[in-house]
# Entry
Amino acid sequence: MLPLYVEPNRPEVYLFERSDEADGGWLNERRVIGLDPEIRIPALGIVLPLAEIFDGIDFLPGPLLG
# Structure
């Protein structure tokens, strides 16, 4: 299981990886920032460019863009 959280106010995505252990805990969190990186999701056999995820979105300038 690989949940993906897309930040609506800035070009930022969080990936969460779940443990296969019985407790079902989370192994790690990966934060991807900007429009240039890509996210690889091997379980689905896909690569998602952040530029495509955020295509058509105009971000407001200011502190949210860090």
